Amino acid sequence: MTPRPSFKIPKIPEMTIRRLSVYTRCLLQLEEDGVKTVSSEELAERFNLNSAQVRKDLAYFGEFGVRGIGYYVSGLKAELQRILGLDREWQVALVGFGNLGSALFNYKGFAHQGFRISVIFDDDPQKAGRTVDGVPILPLRELAQEAKGRNLQIGIVAVPPAAAQAVADRLVAAGIKAILNFAPTRLKVPKDVRLQNVDLSIELETLSFYLAQVSR
Amino acid sequence: MTPRPSFKIPKIPEMTIRRLSVYTRCLLQLEEDGVKTVSSEELAERFNLNSAQVRKDLAYFGEFGVRGIGYYVSGLKAELQRILGLDREWQVALVGFGNLGSALFNYKGFAHQGFRISVIFDDDPQKAGRTVDGVPILPLRELAQEAKGRNLQIGIVAVPPAAAQAVADRLVAAGIKAILNFAPTRLKVPKDVRLQNVDLSIELETLSFYLAQVSR
DNA sequence: GTGTGATAGTGTTCCTGTTCACATGGCTCC
DNA sequence: GGAGCCATGTGAACAGGAACACTATCACAC
After folding, report:
1. What is the spatial distance between Cα B86 and Cα B81, in angstroms, rounded to a whole number?
2. CA-only gyration radius of chain A, Å
3. Which of A61, B15, B99, B181 is the most buried (most CB within 10 A)?
4. Is the CB of residue B94 less than 8 Å from the CB of residue B156?
């Protein structure tokens, strides 16, 4: 569906990337626990996956394993972090500082993986101009300028659905190439902009569907 | 991967369900705009999908369309709402009232689709015992009892990863069959419990991966 | 009442991702 | 230094979802 731009690496399934992220988290834990090596089998059963899948996922990016041994935890962790771009700091712009926006901002899980919300945009005059934890809240019109100055690379859309497309358009115009959208709308963005949607309604309604099935 | 319990309806792809949810939202909008009928083609291009896919998705559940015309907006909307179980009210338990938990609670998008957070659980003594917007915050130990009394059907897990599995176990023990998990952990639940994960780190790291690719 | 046009429903094909199974190759122990 | 072990890496089979193309059917015009 999404025609992928031509990367060095030929054709990585989306699902592989998502699993890479999961593996990384697991390896972080294993390293903390002092585990030195881990086999694809062990890794697989933690997420009830197939061990072949784990190996194939990793093999897309190189030969990280040692036959007869498995994978060295810290080595693999470092590789995956590099592949996922977690070895650097990304400057993130958060647009919308309502309930969801402020929760995302206060959620400390991001920072420690290199995602830094360095500026917030919100047109509400009650909010714009203030500062939270040293991060300025600015009106949306300053986005283009700030994007350059702060080298913003990721935009998080946490505004009401009606405003989401307009916000996305401005993020794109400001040269941002990666958007995480929380608004329950399908945004239209150019092909070279990577869009990731998180739609809470869909998740809940999927649950609701299954409940409705069993109770029918 | 997920061995599905045997429903009346034989084999609905997960992706179909998710799209159903999207169609429903679109139909709601169309109805508001006074549109009477819509073709699979029109519906498809709003989400850049294939029209055949739209038709197939809908045909899983019956023949809702009229050849030569399309689908009647309000009729189809009602059908989809019924299929998704949105024609009734679900009682939802929110576990964890930290940043994310309270944002979810305050997010008004849920209620209007029939998802009612009727009780919150949090063991923090600062919170337990209080009431927000008429909804009680209770210690986790009261879960089992409340689940029965309030007929809770959906549990939302918004606690730190370390506590998530324990919470899930208690939700399962309390007879809850549908869990929406926001903790960045893979939870283990029995096969008859439907688990839906929302993992913000994965989404961000997917973006990060693509950014890292293009900038290499 | 009949013809025409438009669009739903569906069998088939295609393609992508998952699983299987085996051969490859490094490590260890004798 | 050689033999055996054991887990990786990978080509091939398999499965499931998406796209295509065709057929059936309905509404409306004449």
Report:
1. 5
2. 20
3. B181
4. yes
pLDDT at residue A12 greater than cutoff 70: yes
Nearest to B13 by CA among B78, B61, B82: B61
Instruction: Choose which CATH entry (3.30.1360.30, 3.40.1110.10, 3.30.565.10, 1.10.10.10) describes domain B14-83.
Output: 1.10.10.10
Residues 6+ apart with CB under 8 A from A5: A191, A192, B214
**Looking at beta carbons, which residues of chain B come within 8 Å of A114?**
208
Answer whether A207 sits within 8 Å of B178, measured CB to CB.
Answer: yes
The pLDDT tens digits of the residues spanning A132-142 come to 999 999 999 99
Judge contact between A99 and B107, C-beta under 8 A: yes
The pLDDT, as a whole number, for residue A44 is 95
Residue A159: its chain B contacts at CB < 8 A? none
Nearest by CB to A47, which of B88, B186, B209? B186
Residue A103: which of B9, B25, B103 has the nearest Cβ? Answer: B103
CB pair distance less than 8 Å for B203 and A196: yes
Q: Where are the domains of chain B?
A: 14-83, 90-202
B69 touches strand C (CB under 7 A): yes
- Count the residues in chain A: 216
- Let me know: does B202 contact B186? Beta carbons within 8 Å: no
Chain C footprint bases within 7 A of protein beta carbons: 5-11, 16-21, 24-27
The CATH architecture to which A90-202 belongs is 3-Layer(aba) Sandwich (3.40)
Which residues from 1-20 of A have any strand C atom under 7 Å from their CB?
11, 13-16
pLDDT mean for each 10 residues of chain B (216 residues)? 39 93 95 94 91 95 92 96 95 95 84 90 96 96 96 96 96 97 92 93 95 85
Tell me how far apart the alpha carbons of residues B4 and B10 are, in angstroms, rounded to a whole number.
10
Q: What own/partner pairs with CB < 8 Å and gap ≥ 24 does A23-26 have?
A: A23/A54, A23/A57, A23/A58, A23/A76, A23/A80, A24/A77, A24/A80, A24/A81, A24/A84, A24/A86, A24/B205, A25/B184, A25/B201
| 3 state DSSP class of B51 | helix
**Closest CA to C27 C1' — which residue?**
A68
CA–CA distance, A36 with A70 (Å, rounded to integer): 10
Which of A100, A154, A184 lies closest to B25 in CB terms? A184
Identify all chain B residues contacting A104, using CB atoms and an 8 Å cutoff: 103, 200
